Amino acid sequence: MIKLIDLDMQLKELEPAIINRIKSVLAHGQYIMGPEVYELEEKLANFVGVKHCISCANGTDALQLSLMSCGIGNGDIVFVPSFSFFATAEVIPLVGATPYFCDIDLKTYNLCPKSLEKAIQQSKNINGTPKAVIAVDLFGLPANYPALQDICDRYGLLLIEDAAQSFGASLDGKKCGSFGNIATTSFFPSKPLGCYGDGGAIFTNDDQLAELCRSLRSHGKGSHKYENIRIGLNSRLDTIQAAVLLEKLSIFDEELLKRQLVAKRYIEALQNRYQLEIPAGIAQSAWAQFTIRHSSLPREQIQANLLSKDISSMIYYPTPIHKAEPMNSFPATDMKNTCKASNEVISIPISPYISEGEQHHIIQTLLI
Ligand SMILES: *Cc1c(COP(=O)(O)O)cnc(C)c1O
Predict the structure, then answer these.
(1) Range 118-123 average pLDDT
(2) Is 266's C-beta closer than 6 angstroms to any atom of ligand 1?
(3) Span 34-41, average pLDDT
(4) Which amino acid residue places its CA nearest to atom 6 of ligand 1?
């Protein structure tokens, strides 16, 4: 069976180095906030090209901490695309704010600037103060930041980038994780840069937001651990996970190039038969997923055909967030594209280690 994301080959390549790194953590015994955590934060900030990286327990906490650091809570409205992983919007009611769901662009599956602007204008009719936008770089492709930043500037809104799927991607040479006021990522094992458990990080150039995030991830600490000056979370990245990530980061650029080659082959072979996400000139995707659509062939038939040839596939995401039970009473714009995408998308196997033979087999199966 060809897995959707195969991490076995990566482990084979890195196992001795990762075990050595973990052994050195066991030797010094600083399991919480050990030196590997600070080493990783510095390397990640350099990689993304921002001043501050604040690691934390997972990508969902990274989003929640970002909202908290921006002072977003009761009475605030946060605009968010409905076509994403649930966590992107889940954190909004969690901090007491109201999510306002927006539609996506069907070519990129990312937040549609026109839909966002419409939602901002319509939000005058509901209680609450528009405060922020969370944009998602879905499947690894950067959102349209020039257009989104322009809207945020005009309406005085903060921009938060959910780069959980796009670590390594870039737009016009600027890395994902560096857009907006504050950005977040996830190190869930199957993300482009994944650890062997949960992990996440926050990126920002804003000294004040960075300081708040550092405090909020450790019980609202002040100048030292037992001075608590605000209500926070217990959300730190384990030292052992930082050790794993340091080794994975050392080969990340090579992996990214390999993913891009795989994507290029898929695009060349499949673009006449399927709707694909093709990055525009200045955009580089991290290819967290390779997602295809066919507007006439039933999706079940495509999936069954893949399965019969031992090829995994997944539907990201079958239910738009605004239709999920805990979310369906919150305001939303027209969701034509979101609904079409969630009815038609299929993600097929992609990883830096998928062989040319496997790719050929997948392409032949999809071209039947
Ligand atoms: C994975 C993911 C998250 C959440 O990350 P976790 O580390 O699993 O908490 C948030 N947003 C998006 C778009 C994701 O893909």
Answers:
(1) 98
(2) no
(3) 98
(4) 59
Ligand 1 touching residue 161 (CB < 6 A): no
Q: For ligand 1, atom 5, which residue shows the shortest CA distance?
A: 59
Q: What is the pTM of this model?
A: 0.98
**Model confidence at 10: pLDDT above 90:** yes
Q: Which atom of ligand 1 is nearest to the CA of 136?
A: 13
Per-residue model confidence (pLDDT) at position 319: 97
The answer to whether the beta carbons of residues 110 and 279 sit under 8 Å apart is: no
**For ligand 1, is residue 99 a contact (CB within 6 Å)?**
no
Compute how many other C-beta atoms are within 10 angstroms of the C-beta atom of residue 156: 8
> Which residues, in sequence order, are CB contacts of 261 under 8 Å at separation 6+?
none
Question: Ligand 1: which atom is nearest the Cα of residue 58?
Answer: 7
pLDDT tens per residue across span 300-315: 999 999 999 999 999 9
Is residue 184 within 6 Å of ligand 1 at its C-beta? no
Average pLDDT over residues 177-186: 98
If you measure from the C-alpha of residue 69 to the centroid of ligand 1, how many angstroms do you get, rounded to a whole number?
Answer: 19
SS3 of the chain:
CECCCCCHHHHHHHHHHHHHHHHHHHHHCCCECCHHHHHHHHHHHHHHCCCEEEEECCHHHHHHHHHHHCCCCCCEEEEEECCCCCHHHHHHHHCCCEEEEECECCCCCCECHHHHHHHHHHHHHCCCEEEEEEEECHHHCCCCHHHHHHHHHHHCCEEEEECCCCCCCEECCEECCCCCCEEEEECCCCCCCCCCCCCEEEEECCHHHHHHHHHHCECCECCCCCCECCCCCECCCEHHHHHHHHHHHHCHHHHHHHHHHHHHHHHHHHCCCCEECCCCCCEECCCCCEEEECCCCCHHHHHHHHHHCCECCECCCCCCHHHCHHHCCCCECCCHHHHHHHHHCEEECCCCCCCHHHHHHHHHHHHC
Question: Would you place residue 224 in the very low, low, confident or very high pLDDT band (cuts 50, 70, 90)?
Answer: confident
Give the rounded percent of residues in the chain with a pLDDT score beyond 90. 98
Check residue 150 and give its pLDDT: 98
